[in-house]
Amino acid sequence: MKYLFFLLTTLAAFAQSGKVNGLQLENITYPFPVSEITIDSQGQKLQMAYMDAKPQKANGKTIVLLHGKNFAGYYWEQTAKDLNKAGYRVIMPDQIGFGKSGKPTNIQYSFQWLAQNTKAVLDKLKIDKAIILGHSMGGMLATRFALMYPETTEKLILENPIGLEDWKTVVPYPSIDDWYANEIHQTAESIKEYQLKFYFDNKWKPEYDKGVEMLAGWTRNKDYSIIAKNSALTYDMIFTQPVVYEFQNIQAPTLLIIGQRDRTALGKSNASKEVQATLGNYPKLGKETQQKIKGSRLVEIENVGHLPHIEAYEKFIAPLLEFLKVGQ
């Protein structure tokens, strides 16, 4: 009863906030200056936003932070500030379809394409070597980037990446229309309830509010259907383009940071109860992935879910900085 009262009151507060976000978050100020690059692809000219945070005392190293499915570059603020203090230049793209970047609804999304777009940002900035860090969906993208551009990838860090298993082998296929039907009915209440249950184990902190409002503000936009369609297209990309079969081909020194409470798996609710019980087992998946990536290091963070760099920042940043120093 106490939890139900907490849930209802906090969801009501979000529903009443009423902010409407622009499709490219025009009304949202990011923690660092935002630049854009034009991606000329598939017969379209698309704007891709990114932040480039430079340190006061550079160590000559660059790290690229790749965001997850329900996020964008803004949520790397504290990580980027601490990496800057350590001398690293930090690049934080908003992938096309996310954040402040364009939202095309007639595009073929693929991780190869997102990797090419990310490489285009680095090429524009004349960066030929970088450390690549990806969280959640960004972990799938970081893996694809490392496979496509091994000469560019100095090190690889995967923070609770999804795609450590192939859901489509055991879960009935959800069509793009199915994903869209789910997304178009999202509300501030449903977004927060999902994050409260699946990200933060029903333990909410005020600093989590920003991530919910970023998404909830879109649901109030009269053109929210554009966001919902992009979300459906990228869900289909994630579900149908696994990287799990290629981890053994990664050449870069790799760190896995895995919150052990995480049970994320796309399409899980569509599977039988027997299959659901086997999906998203991050303690098991983390160990299996470490075995596949030659020489990789695994850091397991107990009692932490899908977002270590938000939920348990100190437990995330310490092993990250330690790993970055190796070999310098």
Automatic annotation (TrEMBL):
GO MF, one annotated term: monoacylglycerol lipase activity
Segments passing through the bilayer: none
AB hydrolase-1 domain sequence ranges: 62-312
InterPro entries (alphabetical): AB_hydrolase_1 (IPR000073), AB_hydrolase_fold (IPR029058), AB_hydrolase_sf (IPR050266), Epox_hydrolase-like (IPR000639)
One biological process term in Gene Ontology: acylglycerol catabolic process
Gene3D superfamilies: alpha/beta hydrolase
Keywords: Hydrolase, Signal
Secretion signal span: 1-15
GO cellular component: membrane
Stored PANTHER family: HYDROLASE, PUTATIVE (AFU_ORTHOLOGUE AFUA_2G14860)-RELATED (PTHR43798:SF33), MONOACYLGLYCEROL LIPASE (PTHR43798)
Name of this protein: Alpha/beta hydrolase
